[in-house]
Specification:
The complex is a heterodimer.
Chain A lengths: L2 H9 L3 H22 L3 H17 L10 H19 L25 H4 L2 H9 L3 H12 L4 H8 L3 H27 L2
Helix pairs in contact in A: 1-2, 2-3, 2-4, 3-4, 7-9, 8-9
Chain B lengths: L1 H17 L8 H12 L22 H37 L13 E6 L11 E2 L27 H6 L5 E2 L12 E5 L2 H14 L11 E7 L8 E4 L5 H12 L13 E6 L3 E10 L4 E19 L4 E24 L2 E23 L2 E7 L7 E13 L4 E13 L8 H4 L2 E12 L2
Classes of the chains: A mainly alpha, B alpha+beta.
């Protein structure tokens, strides 16, 4: 089945079309939600709510832009609403602490490229919620800082500075991660 | 350096984008159950051929127009009849107070009573006979029933012939007295006008004691919209950033200096008020008013983005209690002109912001710092018109100054604390 026929089937309320759509996009969307929501149980709820919105508002998809892009917006909004409702975006940026004296190792210059996606995701989860959101919105989803400022009701300068701080914090976490791995 | 940063961001994005985690088992069934419960999962029926519906008579525009015309004509006729009836009532009331006055409908009396007579009867024509020479003259008033048709004349033929100044004036027609046996006499037009001037000025008001207790239902705030207000981009608004901070933005969204890189037209709608007030007269010209008000404020702004369109909607609802003094300045017939001075205490009972992205609700949150009581000072001048049965209409034009608490969410009132408004409504007067 083509995506257009699946969408049409979903519009008509066809359960099989909905199942097809779910199977096509479930993993990608759940992974998206997990990048924003650290707790798995909460991520499952957000994922469930996101798909309900997709199925109920599928008539509003005008055909302009990709359908996956339209779905991603819905799931990003669902994740942000959850974080806002839980007031999770006020988590304090905790200092990762200094490396223990005499610790050997450190992140190589191409540490990011060498790191697996699972390892990177693990480090991302250790960032404060706000940093994680900014990183995902800009680096992964590709939203410019002007758009992020509107979505999060912050200034563009705040978005840029928070992104830089998030990258710096990630680099510190990466440094510590490699040190810990080298000293095991 | 920028190239390195861009490359780092690109690699970061690719790595994170490659992360995959499987959703839990049974999630699709859970979603299906939710859709079924909400009724959104039912397959839609095949579209039936469109058949032009038969529009019932009562829904046709022509019928509605005819009914509206009929209602308007009935109201106008009722007003007209009410005006005429009221004039007759006034006449009856004045007659009750002044039994000497006999009114005809919408006409001034032609005569003013002079004295009362005990019983109703026909009085014989008045005959005056001038004094003549000789033996004198008889003058008499004799009831008609006892009277011959011939006029009374001096008995003495000789006296008549001898009198050079005898004259007889007679009125052949009996003069009827009023219903209560009054004998009336014509007065001059100036005296009649003076009489009626006193009646109008001195008679008590037809609706009883001046300005008794009243209940008014009204709406305010229409027709004086001051249009769009240009302000900074909402995301850059210092006030909004502060609000987010107080909501728990923490170190992530702390207060920052507002940057005015881009402006967004934010439209603040004129406040709309619905109210019920009760007025109680202290004196003939002074009354105290109080009641309950509901005010709705709404604002909206649209900002097109690179990837999506954003729409912000803010709504705030207030409940207030007014307290005012009304001064009745002038009354004429059914019209009254009055002034009003007072204060209104209000409390915001509901407020929220909603952001829509591409038409879909993206986020919603409650505003902070709005649960503080506020006071406004009101001044107005108004005109009221009494209909019938105690009902009347009124309209006012006035101004108010709204005193905002500190750090209040931005709305029409915070930008225009001094505001003009109109107020229209219906009023019921208790006698």
């Amino acid at each position: 089945m083509t995506i257009e026929s699946i969408i049409e089937g979903c519009r008509k309320g066809d359960s099989e079309a909905r199942r097809e759509l779910y199977q096509m996009y479930a993993t990608a969307m759940f992974s998206l939600v997990r990048r924003y929501v650290k707790v798995r149980e909460a991520a499952e709820d957000v994922f469930h709510d996101g798909f309900v919105v997709v199925y109920t508002k599928i008539d509003e998809y005008s055909g302009r832009g990709s359908f996956e892009g339209w779905m991603r917006k819905i799931f990003v909004n669902a994740a942000l609403n959850y974080l806002r409702k839980e007031a999770r975006m006020d988590e304090v940026d905790e200092d990762v602490g200094d490396l223990p004296p005499g610790a050997a190792g450190g992140a190589p210059p191409d540490a990011l490229e060498q790191m697996s996606d699972k390892e990177l995701q693990g480090l991302i989860e250790r960032l404060p919620e706000g940093f994680r959101v900014i990183l995902n919105l800009h680096a992964v989803e590709g939203y410019p800082h002007t758009e992020i400022a509107k979505m999060l009701s912050i200034t563009e300068a705040t978005s840029r500075s928070q992104f830089l701080r998030a990258k710096k914090r990630l680099a510190e976490l990466m440094e510590r991660h490699y040190c810990e791995r080298a000293n095991r | 350096m920028k190239d390195i940063d861009d490359k780092y961001t690109k690699i970061l994005g690719e790595k994170l984008g490659q992360f995959r985690e499987e959703p839990p088992e049974g999630m699709f069934e859970r979603i299906e159950q939710t859709l079924l419960a909400s009724g959104a999962a039912a397959p839609k029926q095949a579209e039936e051929p469109v058949v032009a519906p038969v529009v019932p008579l009562w829904r046709r525009p022509l019928f509605k127009g005819a009914v509206a015309t009929l209602v308007a004509a009935s109201l106008a006729f009722g007003l007209f009849v009410g005006l005429k009836d009221r004039t007759a009532e006034v006449g009856v009331d004045i007659l009750a107070e002044n039994p000497n006055v006999l009114l005809t409908h919408n006409e001034q009396p032609e005569e003013i009573p002079v004295e009362n007579v005990e019983e109703e009867r026909e009085v014989a024509p008045i005959v005056t006979v001038a004094e003549s020479k000789g033996e004198g003259v008889l003058m008499a008033m004799v009831p008609l029933s006892e009277q011959s048709e011939e006029p009374l004349i001096a008995e003495s033929q000789e006296q008549e012939q001898q009198s050079e100044q005898t004259s007889v004036r007679k009125s052949r027609e009996p003069r009827k007295v009023s219903v209560k046996g009054e004998k009336r006499e014509r007065r001059s037009r100036e005296e009649l006008e003076e009489y009626w001037r006193k009646v109008i000025e001195e008679e008590p008001r037809e609706r009883g004691v001046a300005h008794p207790a009243e209940v008014a239902i009204y709406t305010a705030g229409l027709g004086l919209n001051r249009g769009d207000v240009q302000m900074n981009n909402l995301a850059h608004s210092q006030l909004l950033v502060n609000e987010q901070h107080q909501l728990g933005g923490g170190s992530y969204m702390g207060p920052m200096m507002a940057q005015q890189k881009k402006s967004t037209n934010l439209h603040h709608s004129m406040p709309l008020t619905l109210g019920v007030t009760v007025s109680y007269s202290l004196t003939d010209w002074l009354a105290v008013d109080s009641g309950l008000l509901y005010t709705s404020l709404s604002s909206s702004g649209e900002s097109p983005g690179e990837m999506s369109n954003y729409l912000l909607k803010r709504s705030m609802d207030y409940v207030g209690i007014p307290l005012a003094l009304s001064f009745y300045l002038f009354d004429f017939d059914r019209w009254s002109i009055y002034g009003r001075v007072g204060i209104t205490g209000e409390l915001c009972v509901s407020s929220n912001d909603k952001i829509y992205m591409d038409g879909a609700l993206s986020s919603e949150w409650q505003l902070s710092n709005q649960n503080t009581a506020s006071i406004s000072f009101d001044v107005a001048a108004g005109v009221s018109y009494a209909l019938w049965g105690g009902w009347g209409l009124f309209g006012e034009v006035g101004g108010s100054y709204w005193s905002a608490p500190e750090n209040y969410p931005e709305n029409y009132r915070t930008l225009h604390p001094l505001n003009l408004s109109t107020r229209f409504g219906v009023r019921f007067t208790f006698n």
